[in-house]
Amino acid sequence: MKKIVLFLLLICKVSLGQKLKIDTKTTFQTIHSFGASDCWSMQMVGENYPIEKRQKIADLLFSKQLDKAGNPKGIGLSMWRFNIGAGSTEQGIESKITNEWRRAECFLENGKYNWNKQRGQQWFLEAAKRNGVDFTLGFLNSAPVSMTKNGLAIGSGKLGEWNFDKTKIDVFTDFMTEVSAKLKFDYISPFNEPQWDWGPKSKSGFGSQEGTPINNDDLAWAVRKLDSKMNERKLSTKVVISEAAQIDYLYKSKSNRSDVGQDNQIESFFSESSKNYVGNLNSVEKLICGHSYFTTSPSNELINKRQDLSEKIQQQKLNYWQSEYCVLGDNAGEIEGGGQDLDMKTALYVAKVIHADLTYANASAWHWWLSVSANDYKDGLIYVSNNGVKGENDSNKFDGEIYDSKLLWAFGNFSRFVRPKMQRIKIETDNKDLMVSAYKSSKQLVVVIINPAQNQRIELPIFTKNQVIDSYTTSKDKNLAHSQIKGTNIEIPAEAVVTLVMGMK
Question: Terminus of the chain with fewer CB atoms < 10 Å: N or C?
Answer without folding.
Answer: N
